[in-house]
Structure to design on (887 residues):
């Protein structure tokens, strides 16, 4: 039975519970009792008791089933297979057993594997059946328990309100759980990475070539995890992006707030916002299709040698993407400067440009800086543009016409394709992810602090 | 206004602009010009982006097809098991009847390169659907291969020397003969929408990606919409001001700014490796996207709840409603248009998100649309990524066309959101 169907059945049972609860409350009322809560609340109470435990059980069961079945399967394997096997070997064995169980047989598996596959199949079936039975039992038991509580004095409304309130709290805790999940998964994987590659080598090493050798005697690539070239590439491309986005965003915000009349502003501002709504994969394709060839042809006509995946192309397109961030943050910051300050400057005979440069910009500076910091964090974490348009090899260079690689590109390169999960190569991606998460988090917190201080000044 | 300055009277009027004032006004005009230039640059880039992609997409609007007379001999296909016939051979024979002079192995190979590999399946499906066709001669229409398609659309420059061209002179000659015989036509390319992915550009379509994206967005909506509303209602209507709720708020604001690829790492480590969920499946993609969309929905919902005036709540509480009833019966319904607007915008962002889906393997090569949300699948943006990486020329225009499809969905979703905001916005 599929999980979707099980969910539907539980929901249907909950509805039945609602009807039962409501009708028994209605019966109490017609018998002449004075009810504390109106009958529908008795119904809701029964429905919640029926649905919530059952659905929770399904979720926990689904989360735990594969792990438990794997453990049982391992325990049932003949001891000569499992004793002294590495985790990688064991996961390989499990994978083979599951393939055989699913009918995807490659080569000739040995008898132990075939037996285990049959056991695996029967355990899966038993587990699924047990899940259905337990869930339905929980739902019915919930109805029975909740109905036994109903009485004229029962404070059904208060109870339902209380349960709903707990549900709301659990939902808002999910945000904390997500953050916790991110931190835990990054830190745990990174720790096992740093157990193999020293932190100092990772943070300060100058050589990045994560291709670990396939054969033990292979000489060419031994797997080097010095991430400085990768960090440099990220910073370099972000700097190029900001060099494009900062002047364009700032000048357009100044024009829209101080010079343009309302009609132009009403047209141009949404148009600029469109740039922020275009998916980054589209920018990436644009960079590969149009911008990179243009830069290469232009550079070649000047006699320069330009890499097809130059940092300039990736950074420039990323800059275009970031324009609306800068312009809308600057726009808000300049608009928020009190009119009296403009009036004061004009009264002293300042031109508009002088007012902007000497009064408005200094006053709006914290807001603009906050926006720029958020934009930098956006640029560092941006993935698809650089995956498609930036280079794959890590080089330490300051030439924008050469290709550099970034943290996000390396994460994608290390984790796409079939790689075993436990190799330093895949773990390195989590190390990079941890650095990325910490640096963007720091930038965001810094930006919020700057903006907050600025708000305190004018409100 | 500088007329009087040139009259040479030697005396300057009191309002006469001196050189310094002129400089100051020039600086003002310069700043203004910088602003105009910046806006023109940004808008020009927007136009270039949309323009080049639209122009590149044009060839993918039609698909060149060829119509052949095919004879299926009695013995070649078994009527009781029509799937087992060797249809490629039958097709090759009917091609050979049109070009009887082609006989060297190299030429035969080059001739066959003009026709799509999908022809045999089109023929098979036709015969399977109607077994009375066996033993008869009938017409069948199927796509040309990538190079035939490019020839028809004029993408391949015939004047280039042979070495720089992807087709041989003979292939061009054969193609021209097919055109003369009226066998070539270019109908609208419905396959782009309704086919699943393929290695061959002329057969590749978006259907699998559309279904995958639909499932992922469905999961994303089912999870993030109720959970987001619940969290926002708690924080806005019930939560006491204390350290715990402060912590939740800081978390939500930070999650909104975490790079999307980090959510991909989370999905990989937690959903795939810890919970053992299926790789490449839309359900995992949907869950990761819902975690990303959650902050957007929570922030939008809180803004919508804030906009409902306190008098509504006071009136409800005044007639004896509990706080939960007040929220459920009055505040939430009034805030719903704002919540839905924010949700649609959040889902539109989720639809275009690529990086986290790459990490959970939704960039796999899958030639059939998924049956359920637990089957491996691609999504619209990851399909674009796969096609953009494919070397065949035909994929360039198809990638652009897929981007246009994606942008069309985004425009629709945002248009609905803007319409709802305009239609239901209420000033109290």
């Amino acid at each position: 039975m599929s999980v979707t169907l099980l969910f539907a059945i539980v929901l249907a049972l909950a509805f039945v519970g609602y009807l039962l609860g409501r009708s028994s409350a209605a019966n109490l009322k017609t018998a002449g009792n004075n009810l504390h809560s109106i009958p529908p609340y008795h119904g809701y109470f029964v429905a919640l008791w029926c649905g919530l435990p059952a659905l929770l059980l399904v979720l926990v069961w689904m989360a735990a089933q594969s792990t438990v079945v794997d453990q049982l399967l391992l325990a049932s394997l003949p001891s000569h297979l499992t004793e002294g096997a590495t985790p990688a070997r064991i996961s390989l064995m499990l994978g083979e057993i599951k393939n055989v169980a699913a009918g995807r047989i490659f080569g000739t598996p040995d008898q132990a594997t075939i037996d285990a596959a049959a056991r695996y199949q029967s355990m899966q079936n038993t587990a699924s059946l047990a899940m259905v039975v337990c869930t339905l039992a929980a739902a019915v038991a919930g109805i029975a328990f909740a109905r036994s509580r109903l009485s004229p004095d029962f404070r059904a409304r208060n109870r339902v309100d209380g349960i709903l309130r707990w549900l709301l709290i659990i939902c808002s805790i999910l945000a904390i759980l997500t953050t916790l999940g991110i931190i835990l998964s990054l830190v745990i994987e990174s720790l096992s990475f740093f157990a193999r590659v020293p932190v100092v080598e990772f943070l300060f090493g100058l050589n990045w070539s994560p291709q670990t050798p396939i054969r033990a005697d292979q000489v060419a690539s031994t797997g080097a995890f010095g991430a400085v070239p990768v960090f440099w590439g990220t910073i370099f491309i972000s700097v190029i992006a900001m060099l494009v986005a900062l002047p364009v965003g700032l000048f357009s915000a100044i024009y829209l707030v101080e010079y343009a009349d309302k009609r132009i502003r009403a047209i141009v501002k949404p148009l600029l916002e469109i740039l922020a709504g275009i998916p980054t994969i589209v920018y990436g394709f644009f960079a590969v299709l149009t911008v990179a060839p243009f830069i290469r042809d232009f550079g070649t006509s000047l006699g320069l040698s330009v890499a097809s995946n130059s940092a300039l192309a990736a950074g420039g397109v990323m800059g275009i993407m970031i324009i609306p961030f800068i312009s809308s943050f600057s726009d808000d910051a300049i608009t928020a400067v009190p009119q009296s300050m403009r009036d004061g400057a004009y009264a002293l005979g300042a031109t508009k440009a002088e007012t902007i440069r000497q009064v408005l910009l200094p006053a709006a500076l914290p807001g603009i800086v906050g926006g720029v910091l958020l934009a930098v964090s956006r640029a560092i974490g941006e993935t698809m543009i650089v995956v498609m348009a930036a280079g794959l090899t890590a080089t330490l260079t300051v030439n924008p016409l050469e290709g550099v690689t970034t943290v996000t590109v390396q994460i994608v390169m290390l984790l796409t394709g079939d790689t075993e999960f436990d190799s330093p190569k895949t773990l390195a991606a989590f190390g990079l992810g941890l650095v990325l998460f910490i640096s963007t988090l720091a930038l965001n917190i810094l930006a919020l602090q700057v903006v907050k201080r600025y708000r305190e000044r004018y409100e | 206004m500088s007329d009087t300055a040139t009259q040479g009277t030697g005396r300057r009027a009191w309002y006469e602009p001196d050189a310094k004032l002129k400089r100051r006004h020039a600086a003002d005009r310069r700043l203004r010009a910088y602003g105009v230039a910046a806006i023109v640059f940004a808008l020009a880039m927007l136009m270039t982006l949309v323009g080049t992609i639209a122009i590149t997409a044009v060839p993918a609007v039609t698909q060149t097809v060829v119509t052949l007379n095919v004879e299926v001999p009695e013995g070649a296909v078994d009527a009781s098991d029509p799937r087992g016939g060797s249809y490629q051979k039958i097709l090759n024979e009917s091609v050979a009847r049109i070009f009887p002079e082609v006989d060297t192995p190299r030429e035969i190979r080059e001739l066959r390169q003009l026709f799509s590999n999908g022809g045999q399946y089109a023929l098979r499906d036709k015969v399977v659907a109607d077994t009375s066709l066996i033993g008869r001669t009938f017409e069948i229409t199927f796509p040309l291969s990538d190079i035939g398609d490019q020839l028809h659309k004029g993408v391949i420059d015939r004047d280039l020397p042979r070495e720089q061209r992807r087709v041989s002179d003979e292939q061009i000659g054969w193609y021209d003969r097919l055109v003369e015989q009226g066998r070539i036509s270019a109908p609208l390319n419905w396959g782009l929408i309704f086919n699943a992915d393929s290695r061959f550009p002329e057969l590749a379509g978006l259907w699998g990606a559309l279904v995958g994206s639909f499932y992922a967005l469905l999961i994303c909506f089912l999870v993030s919409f109720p959970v987001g509303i619940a969290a926002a209602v708690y924080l806005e209507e019930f939560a006491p001001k204390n350290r715990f709720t402060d912590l939740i708020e800081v978390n939500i604001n930070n999650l909104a700014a975490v790079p999307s690829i980090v959510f991909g790492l989370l999905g990989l480590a937690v959903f795939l490796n810890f919970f053992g969920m299926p790789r490449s499946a839309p359900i995992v993609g949907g869950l990761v996207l819902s975690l990303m969309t959650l902050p957007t929905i929570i922030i939008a919902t809180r803004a919508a709840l804030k906009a409902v005036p306190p008098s509504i709540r006071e009136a409800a509480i005044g007639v004896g409603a509990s706080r939960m009833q007040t929220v459920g019966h009055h505040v939430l319904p009034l805030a719903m248009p704002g919540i839905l607007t924010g949700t649609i915008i959040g889902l539109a962002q989720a639809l275009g998100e690529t990086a986290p889906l790459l990490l959970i393997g939704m960039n796999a090569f899958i030639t059939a649309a998924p049956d359920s949300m637990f089957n491996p699948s691609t999504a619209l943006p990851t399909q674009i990524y796969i096609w953009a990486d494919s070397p065949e020329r035909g994929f360039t225009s198809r990638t652009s066309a897929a981007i246009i499809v994606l942008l069309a969905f985004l425009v629709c979703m945002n248009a609905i959101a803007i319409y709802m905001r305009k239609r239901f916005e209420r000033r109290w």
About this structure: Residues 104 and 331 of chain A are 60 Å apart (CA to CA).
